[in-house]
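Hi both,

Apologies for the delay on this - the queue was longer than expected. I finally got the calcium ion-bound model through. Below you'll find the protein sequence and the ligand SMILES exactly as submitted, and right after that the structure tokens for the full complex including the ligand.
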Amino acid sequence: MATWILVPCLGQLRTELNRIAPGRDKTSDGTIGDAAHRNRSSDHNDDEVGRVPIRDADSRHEVHAIDLDANLRESDLTMEKVVQHILARCRSGAEKRLRYIIYNKRIWEASNNWRRRSYSGDNPHTQHAHFSASYETRHEASTVSWHLEDIPVALTDADKKWLAAQIDKAATTAAERVWKTKWNINFEPGGKPYLAEAGSILAHVPSEHGRSEALLNEIKTDVEKLLAE
Ligand SMILES: [Ca+2]
Ligand SMILES: [Ca+2]
Ligand SMILES: [Zn+2]
């Protein structure tokens, strides 16, 4: 059997999904069709020898469809979000590499201006999403970004904790730098400026320094400026 390839645009889609959902389930992933697909016209078939809806311009053996498992194993990133993100780009005209998407009993087609229709095929596509690609060389071969990293996802508690620690560290470092270089204030070990919460500036300078309110505000502004750098 001739060697076939998945069209590069869909390979890129899978690569990006792997990047944003590194622990995703791949059980229901699929590319080239099984025996059942071979008996009917399907984008999962080898386009040079199999039954496909479109004959393309080249003689490369290509598969123009990918199934991606719906279980992304992420806290706030779902296949529904991925599908809707891609659909929005298709509808805006920013994305031209797909012919249709099937997911969770629904189908959206380029030929139907990406309007939603209910899908009643044998497989309800609840375990995976199906993406059918264009047969136009410039589209199928394009590996420009699908911009999956732009999908808004809430931070996990672990993410928040990590971020807060980074900001805290940056704030402390910035504050110490200003105080040492500009104000010539040196803190003994353990006498670090108290930062009320991540991203906030010093809540107070130890009172023994006897600085005035105006001076404190000036320091605060400096630190804020540093943090914004
Ligand atoms: Ca081909
Ligand atoms: Ca081709
Ligand atoms: Zn499929």
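Main takeaway for now: The chain has six helices and nine strands.

I'll put the files on the shared drive as well.

H.
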